[in-house]
Amino acid sequence: MGSFEAVMMQKNATAKFIATVLVGGVIVGVSLYGLLQSSEGLQKNLEPLGLWKRRRKKKTIRVYMDGCFDMMHYGHCNALRQARALGDELVVGVVSDDEIIANKGPPVTPLEERMIMVNAVKWVDEVITDAPYAITEEFMKKLFNEYNIDYIIHGDDPCILPDGTDAYAHAKKAGRYKQIKRTEGVSSTDIVGRMLLCTRERSASENPNHSSLQRQFSHGHSHKFEDRGTRISQFMPTSRRIVQFSNGRGPGPDARIVYIDGAFDLFHAGHVEILKLARELGDFLLVGIHTDQTVSETRGPHRPIMNLHERSLSVLACRYVDEVIIGAPWEVSRDMITTFNISLVVHGTIAENDDFQKEESNPYAVPISMGIFRVLVSPLGITTTTIIRRIVSNHEAFQKRNEKKGESEKRYYESKTHVHGD
């Protein structure tokens, strides 16, 4: 009997344990269900009031950078790339023609062309036209309140107003200023000097003031010259910089690849507009950039103004370009078309030469014979020569502009010296 009672007691204990577990599970389940229901009810009641958030979203950081962007070059593009890296969205202010004239002198490229250039840079998300040259307190508040700007960005080179004060003083005082590194080896003033040097032989005989203008724009730079007289750029390319500017992706397996080539010297609004047209004709735009030697042989002994790698970076920064061939051949061969799987070869009507129209020695003879060549009507009648002529014809005004910039910087550094002295 004792053994039987012990067995029965053990069975009763096991049954009680199972019952307890089952009841407990039901209670926990009911509790969790009730909690879930009450949570959903609470969410339902609070969401319309804006007091309930499913998941806290990360704040979008918007940064602002302004500039004249006159004769826009790869240095400007690199500055915009660096600025964009400091936030999630980059808003760019383009200074008006009147503001530039009042603070620096006449711009080489008008506002319309400068807007085209800035809008085409692939790191730019939004553009403000007619931005003021100086960040006033009123405009700064507008940036913060209307454009939701978090930080104002500028390079580590001083931006000085005619009165010798810092154009970004208000932003710095507000604690909303961030600085990026200036791209060495290029500036708009430097490029003007290169243009004037490329025309110096003709202009020196026609206008004696031209020689003094060359010295003015070349002041402070150690220029080197080849025997033919073209200045060698101080820019030293690195693979890292090319990677920074590249998209890093190739065409898809069935992509329609469009090819366009050229010098793309002094990359301007005319280049941008024809590249935009070309990109619309396919899925992937491949741009061939001719070597310095090829450009010199076809355009003249003092071309190009910008060297191959400088020109490549300017083209790579364009949002309509997917890939470039650095040092593309003059003639488009069948092997090249096959290698890059090119579907269409295009050329604009506005160009420095008309070789694409020749019956003999036409660099596009192969794609023409294959029926994959098309001439596009260029939206703008601007060429590299157009830009050079603007500089040469207004050389006195640009000389005064350079002198004014030097005087402003001098006053700025003198004021800094006095402050430190006190």
Keywords summarizing the entry:
single chain; 422 residues; alpha/beta; 5-stranded parallel sheet; 15% strand; disordered C terminus
Placed side by side, the strands forming the largest sheet appear as 3-2-1-4-5
- Percent strand: 5-15%
Low-confidence segments, given as residue ranges, are 26-33, 35-39, 201-232, 408-413, 415-422
Total E-strand runs: 12
**N-to-C span:** 109 Å
Order of helices and strands: HEHEHHEHEHEHHHEEHEHEHHEHEHEHH
Approximately how much helix is present in the residues? 40-55%
Sheet of most strands: 5 strands, parallel
Mean pLDDT: 79
Number of helices: 17
Estimated structural class: alpha/beta
- Tell me the radius of gyration: 32 Å
- Tertiary shape: globular
Summarize the structure.
The chain has helices at 2-46, 74-85, 97-103, 111-119, 137-145, 169-173, 188-198, 200-206, 209-218, 239-245, 269-279, 292-299, 308-316, 334-339, 365-369, 384-393, 395-421; strands at 62-67, 89-95, 126-131, 151-155, 177-180, 224-225, 231-232, 257-262, 284-290, 323-328, 342-348, 373-376.
Description:
By secondary structure, this protein is an alpha/beta fold. It is 47% helix and 15% strand. It is built from 17 helices and twelve strands. It has helices spanning 2-46, 74-85, 97-103, 111-119, 137-145, 169-173, 188-198, 200-206, 209-218, 239-245, 269-279, 292-299, 308-316, 334-339, 365-369, 384-393, 395-421, and strands spanning 62-67, 89-95, 126-131, 151-155, 177-180, 224-225, 231-232, 257-262, 284-290, 323-328, 342-348, 373-376. It has a five-stranded parallel sheet with strand order 3-2-1-4-5. Helix 7 packs antiparallel against helix 9 (209-218). The longest helix has 45 residues, at 2-46. The protein starts with a helix and ends with a helix. Mean pLDDT is 79; it is low at 26-33, 35-39, 201-232, 408-413 and 415-422.
